[in-house]
Design goal:
Oligomer: single chain
Number of domains: 1
Order of helices and strands: HHHHHH
Length: 140
């Protein structure tokens, strides 16, 4: 009679918990990024497997048909690179952080930077093309 090894079930449970923790880390960071870029009403979509791709497309400011690009092999790499770079810019980070989301192990850092880092110098510039001179003191 066959009896499984004693450590198999324990290893499987630990592996499942690690996978679950990684999933929730990425979902939570996408949730925080969505709040940052103005998609707070749909930020909970980041926890739902297919809806999180639609949330990514909305955060990047692209149309719904980008979802089709995400389904085509090899094209999806380019599509996700463009989408994440746009999301990085929208969150006030460098677009390089968006590109690093596609690199294994660096994606942990990239998602964390986009989600939890304060806004960068790009958001401190005036949004309109004019500079507000009403608060500038004249030199004597």
């Amino acid at each position: 009679m066959y009896e499984p090894a004693d450590g198999g079930a324990g290893f499987g449970a630990v592996f499942f918990l690690i996978i679950l923790a990684v999933y929730f880390y990425f979902a939570f960071t996408q949730y925080k990024i969505a709040q940052k870029v103005g998609c707070a009403d749909k930020a909970w979509w980041s926890f739902v497997p297919v809806l999180n791709t639609f949330l990514l497309i909305q955060m990047a400011g692209k149309d719904w048909f980008w979802f089709l690009f995400c389904l085509i092999p090899l094209v999806n790499l380019i599509a996700f690179a463009i989408l994440w770079m746009e999301v990085a810019k929208a969150s006030g980070s460098s677009s390089i952080w968006g590109l690093l989301v596609l690199v294994p192990f660096l994606n942990f850092v990239a998602m964390g930077v986009m989600a939890f880092a304060g806004s960068t110098a790009a958001s401190s510039f005036p949004t309109s093309g004019r500079i507000d001179t009403s608060k500038v003191k004249p030199m004597a």
